[in-house]
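We include the pair:
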Amino acid sequence: MSWSRLFAFAAPGAALLVSFAASAQPAATPAQPSTKPPADAAPSRAFRFGVATAPAKPAGTIRLMSYNIENLFDEHDDPALTGRFDDKDMTKPAAHRAAAAEAIRRANPDIVALQEVESLQALLWFRDEFLSDMGYTHVVSLDSGDSRGIENSVLSRFPLKDPKVWPGLPLGGTHPEKSEFRGEPIEFRRSPLRVMVEVPDASRPDAAPYTLALFVVHQKSGRDNNYWRNREAMKTVELARELLALDPNYQIAIVGDLNCQPGEQPYRTFISGGFVDAFADRTKGDPDWVTHESGRVIDHILLSPAAAKRVHTETRFVLGVPARPEGVDWRTTPPPEGYASDHYPVVLDLSLADK
């Protein structure tokens, strides 16, 4: 199977068109690594979930963050969004934007994979308002095909190449009778964004850069949509395996809001497809590893076998941010002071050289 399409790629002040083609092949399922929680994180009960202080980044690594920033809509009314999807009153409050930016500053990642971003324009607005001094000069945000207009995006200190999305890609099968889309072909609710992150070797300018294939994913939500999420997971694994068919040592990270917990079928599809959960040894119920205000673990970083070998397990963390009290209805309970998102940043460090 192969794909070749053109998509818009934008960085600050620039735009170009790119294309990509590859073939899919299966990959061997790796063993899960033995890992341990961060040793130097401060006590985290200042927040309901996550750690209060980000561990220091080890030398010779890059720091990767996945963060569902929750409805990063700007002040401009998008005429393409009408009716129940009209965005004229959806602007993310300034205090929430500032808090989200502060969370990014606290973690200080080199690469930020974001979900629920309205557009490239909204992302640049947010970056320039709050993060202009953080070095995120490389930016990608592409239309995911979502009816609400939200996209998957990346802020990076390193060059981003060959971005690609698959909006409307058929996933096989049709929606069941219980679905509002009953009988229609199943497609990505929001297409993954795939982009190549190229990290130059500062000590050897003529050397080939370290390349990480980053898939930013935001799977379908809803408790009755596991069948849909599983189809999305199957196709995402297939797309990532196209790269492993080219080189089994390809460095690949599949990150984002998967809307499923460890052990659920969509999650198992990624694992059986050959990808390693970088947080697989988390203790169930440990609040340090919870990624959503609801108390669930639904945000993940999954790695190809070669990339999994480069994880610094001692500095993985979920960053604590203010949340609503346990058990309240988010629809009727205002968020607390310092609130940024209903999700928490999930972060790890990858060595630039084989460990």
Remarks:
- The helical segments are 94-107, 120-130, 226-246, 265-272, 305-308.
